[in-house]
Design goal:
It comes from Corynebacterium callunae DSM 20147. The chain has 133 residues and is mostly helical. It has a domain of 84 residues: Arc Repressor Mutant, subunit A (Orthogonal Bundle), CATH 1.10.10. Helices cover 57% and strands 11% of the residues. A three-stranded antiparallel β-sheet has the order 1-3-2. Strand 2 and strand 3 form a beta hairpin. The protein is globular and about 60 Å long. The termini are far apart. The N terminus is likely disordered.
Length: 133
């Protein structure tokens, strides 16, 4: 006789599976604002206030940054600290998990920046080929 608890095993994480929670976490990190927010927080050893992050991540709206910070906090990548001072303020910093995720993001961003000339050249070639489409 087998134990039912051993029959139901949790499947291994697989980001390519639509049913896997890792996909949602990856989308938060690699989405339009998640990676940039992590990189902004990674650049400094001290926590940043909301307005400081917004200044570093050019183009993000208050609403989108607030949503992004909330999602990254939920995923355990950032920590939000509320200071009960006058006036009260909140700051954010990367957790150990966030720091671990920031490392490959920094490498990816650095590679994209280093290869930007090739990217721009490829875009020009593509656009020239497809201008009549």
């Amino acid at each position: 006789m087998t134990d039912q608890a051993t029959d139901t095993q949790t499947p291994a994480p697989n980001v390519l599976s639509a049913a896997c929670s890792s996909r949602v976490a990856l989308q938060e990190v690699t989405g339009r604002w998640g990676g940039l927010t992590i990189l902004a927080l990674e650049q400094t050893e001290s926590p940043l206030r909301f307005s400081e992050i917004r200044r570093q991540v050019e183009g993000v709206s208050d609403r989108m940054l607030s949503q992004t910070l909330s999602k990254l906090e939920r995923d355990g990548m950032i920590e939000r600290t509320v200071h009960s001072s006058i006036p009260p303020h909140v700051d954010y910093h990367l957790t150990p998990l966030g720091l671990k995720i920031a490392e490959p993001l920094r490498l990816l961003a650095g590679t994209v920046e280093a290869e930007l000339a090739k990217v721009l050249e490829a875009q020009e070639e593509f656009d020239a080929k497809h201008q009549d489409d």
